Amino acid sequence: MHKxxxxxxxxxxxLLVGFGSLMIYxxxxxxxxxLAKKNITQFxxxxxxxxxxxxGFGIMFTAYRxxxxxxxxxxxxxxxxxxxxxxxxxxxxIGISAGGARRWIRLWPSTxxxxxxxxxxxxxxxxxxxxxxxxxxxxxxxxxxxxxIMAVFQVIFLKQPDFGATVSLGILTLSMLFLSGMxxxxxxxxTVFAAPLIIKLVKEPYRWKRITSFLNPWDDPQGSGFQLIQxxxxxxxxxxxxxxxxxxxxxLMFLPETHTDFIFSLVGEELGLIGATIVIALFLVLFxxxxxxxxxxxxxxxxxxxxxxxxMIALQALINFFVVTGMIPTKGLPLPFISYGGSSLLxxxxxxxxxxxxxxxxxxxxxxxxxxxxxxxxKALRAVYGNRS
Length: 389
Description:
Blueprint: H1 7-28, H2 33-36, H3 44-65, H4 68-88, E1 95-98, E2 101-107, E3 110-112, H5 114-130, H6 140-159, H7 163-179, H8 184-202, H9 205-215, H10 226-238, H11 263-292, H12 300-324, H13 342-358, H14 378-385
Antiparallel strand pairs: 1-2, 2-3
Helix pairs in contact: 1-3, 1-11, 1-13, 3-13, 4-5, 5-6, 5-7, 5-12, 5-13, 6-7, 7-12, 10-11, 11-12, 12-13
């Protein structure tokens, strides 16, 4: 029997992407004199986003067509490729610096942030690694290998610097290891070992300033606390129903990064508590649908992959919600599918494409946890291997 993909998963993704395009236009349609001098029109960001959006749907369809076995074979090459791209940001002429950080490489007609590809690559690699026959949850060697790879990427992230990507990759990696049944004492020992390093990183002047402004933004309302206060004003002024689509006052140069990291504040202002709640609900259903894919998994690789991709999207959304509402210090993470930012959108669309494929349940094929991955008929597989994964 031919299985189809999860239509709700696709519908929610389309709704979020479409809504994001609408909010990006709303946040960038007002052109200030300084922007006009740079020949930036009201459709400048919107057109660029539409191009990325259509490219994202192409990537999603391509990812959907990939068999689990093919994805498994790509795990290590993709991880190496993402590492090379990450190093390229430090090469003059290729890497692009903005806001005191070097996180992007120049790709026509725009830029690309390799850290987004790293997260996707790490999820695929971990899914393959944890589904290998020699992976043992009671082995320290099995634990330390992915931690070492994670640490290498995190060191490069911190050189950029990109503390948000560092934290996200760490939580994502530890979450997948925890799901696999890795001994809790290994995970806790890593936390204890990493604590002094985290404290040292946090004490960096600009990071410490973010923490103090997060704890009391009104202590420096015109400086480090300005953005968070303006976010509170946007969310508070929206009330229950909002001030109306396109009627935001905070986007008039009051709230910085309205179209990227703080677009959820704009949603709260223009569409109120009702609009913000609907967006949160859509992400919640998207996460549930992604996780439900694991129940159809007949193979450990598919199980870990669907869980990892769902966590990757949900984690980024959750951190963004926490930042704009002042629950955690400010981090430069866009809201998936909604914020302006091509790299994040493309990688999240690729993740959804893979999830759509996995949601079919793999009725007629199964991924074998050996190097000779192959597609065979279900009856033949059961006759030889029974119900083992």
